[in-house]
Write a structure and sequence with these properties.
The chain contains 10 helices and 11 strands. By secondary structure, it is an alpha+beta fold. β9 and β10 form a beta hairpin. α4 packs antiparallel against α5 and α7 crosses α8.
């Protein structure tokens, strides 16, 4: 699934990170079995990756097609490097998924998801308060119409209708998305954190997996520390008849980390991770081999906050 070229790490460390990106639920026991190493050896290696700042935690990848999100949007904000309060404010707005500093007309790009119209309304109110103190008072909202790939995982075709999550499901997913320990949380850990029994956690996770709500477990890492120095947002203009076929082809590229459909003129938004500018240029040349690609617009990511 992943073909990532890691640098500054030995062969076993590379193998561990590849396995964790594909499935962080393996844990120390699963990693040891896959690698043919002792559990103590693997535990020391994982601790070392944390100490190096390469491995920062764990998360789950969710399927937006199966969750009753009311709305998902990209937020572009024009600001300057001295307006740190704007960054802090954007990080504090509800349902934030991503926030990056980018090149171009706008200098910040965030991805937000909302469970209800009231959450979106609250978000807009918070955004308006931030714009009052912003020097430029300029932003742009781009609605996400579909998600094809996220965090390296291609979104499976939907099996049936959306899945109605309970409040407990939402709390559980919230904890799973932001795991900060040196090992993924066990079901016993989750039960203690959420104040329920382990069987309750087990049933909920099994149901969320069987319904394709949770489509994968992954690691949160510092990509620059492993040789993937560059991140880009690539907006792609496509022949309107070919969005779906182009999206499926783009999902096959390992460099395409996430891919979304919007209602804008540049109707596809891809998150790209590459080694350097040369690698990015090679990828663009491959993308332009598709007859249905009309134009692209690239934004370099200078900083990743979330």
């Amino acid at each position: 699934m992943f073909c990532v070229v890691f640098m500054l790490l030995d062969a076993v460390e590379k193998a561990v990170l590849n396995l964790l990106l594909e499935d962080s639920s393996l844990g120390i026991v699963g990693l040891a079995e896959r690698l043919g190493k002792s559990r103590n050896y693997v535990a020391r290696l994982v601790n070392g990756l944390f100490e190096k700042g390469v491995l920062r935690g764990y998360s789950v990848v969710l399927n937006p097609l199966k969750i009753l999100y009311d709305r998902s949007i990209f937020l572009f904000v024009k600001t300057n490097p001295h307006e740190n309060a704007i960054v802090r404010g954007l990080l504090g707005l509800p349902e934030i998924q991503v926030l990056d500093g980018i090149s171009g007309e706008f200098s910040l790009l965030g991805l937000y998801r909302f469970r209800s119209p009231s959450e979106f309304s609250s978000f807009l109110s918070g955004l308006d308060r931030l714009m009052v103190v912003s020097r430029f008072k300029k932003y742009r909202l781009v609605e996400v119409l579909a998600t094809f790939k996220e965090s390296g995982f291609t979104i499976p075709e939907s099996k049936g209708s959306s899945f109605a999550l309970s409040e407990f499901d939402w709390k559980l997913l919230g904890v799973l998305r932001q795991q900060v320990g040196r090992a993924p949380y066990s079901q016993t850990d989750l039960a203690k954190m959420l104040g329920v029994s382990q069987p309750v956690v087990s049933r909920s996770i099994s149901r969320l997996r069987s319904e394709d709500v949770i489509i994968g477990y992954t690691a949160r890492i510092d990509f620059s520390a492993v040789g993937l120095e560059a991140k880009f947002y690539l907006e792609i203009r496509v022949d309107p008849r070919s969005y779906l076929s182009v999206a499926k082809k783009l999902c096959e590229f390992d460099e395409v980390w996430s891919l979304y459909r919007s209602g804008e003129e540049y109707g596809l938004m891809a998150v790209i991770r590459v080694r350097d500018i040369k690698h990015y240029n090679q990828l663009l040349l491959k993308i332009f081999e598709m007859d249905d690609i009309i134009d692209t617009y690239s934004s370099v990511v200078f900083q990743e906050w979330m």
